Amino acid sequence: MQLVPFLVALLALLPGADSFEQAKAKLGKKTADDLCSIAKWCDGKEYFLERDRLYGLALVYSPDHRKARAALGYAKDGKGGWKLIKEPAPSRNHGRVDFEALQKKESRLWERWAKLMVSLIDKHADELGEERRRAELRAVLARVPDDEGVRRALGYVEGWEGHRWVLPSSKRSHARRLELKAAAARALKGVKGPQESALLDYERETGIVWGSHLESEVARVVNVGAKKESERALALIAAAPPFLEAALSVEPASLPPGFTAYLVDGQADMQKLLEKVPGTSGPRVKGVSSYWASGSDLFVGNGSKAGRLDMVSTQTVHHLLGMTFGIRPDQGWAWEGFGIYLSYKLCGTRLSFSVQPSEYEGDKPNTQNRLRESGANWLALAHEVLTRDKPPGLVFILGKSVNQLTGDDLLVGYALAAYLMEVHPGKVSRILSRLGREPAATVLEEELRIALPAIRQELVDWLADVK
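Structure (tokenized):
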């Protein structure tokens, strides 16, 4: 018998003159009728709270539904609208509600509704266009998140353990993350052991108490920290080029000959060092926590071991991306997004970024604090940013330099870089090469072959899956 109302509703969707909105309104009226029927059943059981919930829900799908309006105390106002003539008393359920029976009734209703909506959307696909079609399907999915028909209409596929339905891009992303994890492990494993390195005269003359100084075939590290920290720093520096080659499918530029990384506690030691090292200028770099001198030496000032190691990794990746592709700090989202993403895959932390809590207009200190928290989920935070009532515009973020990025901008830039690295890995090298000389919006639209609003929506959908 349950097949009869389904077929009756389906007949309303057969080819005719109705527009999508007209057909959707007819289906909404039928859905409201069905909700009122379940509400009447609840009334007979004295489930008054559930009854009123269902009458209210009926009005969502058919705002002028007479039965639901009357049940909730409304009457026509003579002007084509409705007015509340009887303030309903607070409702409550009497006795124990049979939620299992109620859920079965509602589940059958929403299952039928979802099938009819998918058919309706498919029938009017040309009228709606792809963007509106997907928006309507996502609205259906919000009501029935586990419905297989809706998921498949949106292009979802079966995922991995713990993820029943995912977008194809998310499934590719999952596999890509495993590939990058393995590539980072191989790069670090292939690093040859370092040896002691003698201090140079000007390094002694700084007055800094050095804890260790090591060198390898690739680089040299002079550090206030212990030997193990220096070994880790050298490993991250040496592993960066082969890791980037595996991640980007292109041979990166080499580190400069005689490359030395200086790791000190903070600003005071940084100034002492820069005053002595040839080719540097102390006042010129006052207030910075890292500095490249003439492209051959890296200076890092941070009070913690974790901070120094993260900065070494991030700065090395930044340097290689800049030398290989021409990416610069004035391309803020790409500089920070790709730099931090790739460094995170290599060293496992995200502590070095240029945005400060109160320096830039419109930034929110709370966002900054959450970014710096251990274990912060940057993709989940980016999804929050992009789905809030007034999200930042992607086109504006793409045009900002590092010094203009807010915390929200940084999250979106990072998420976009992650999306490109995981979903479109074969296009990243070309995108990076073009970003060095062309506007980002143009590059992304031409390489991905969709408009920027569609890129943004794909990013949001992907983040909802993988965050």
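The longest helix spans residues 20-44. Strands lie at 74-76, 82-84, 157-158, 165-166, 195-196, 212-215, 220-223, 260-264, 290-293, 297-301.
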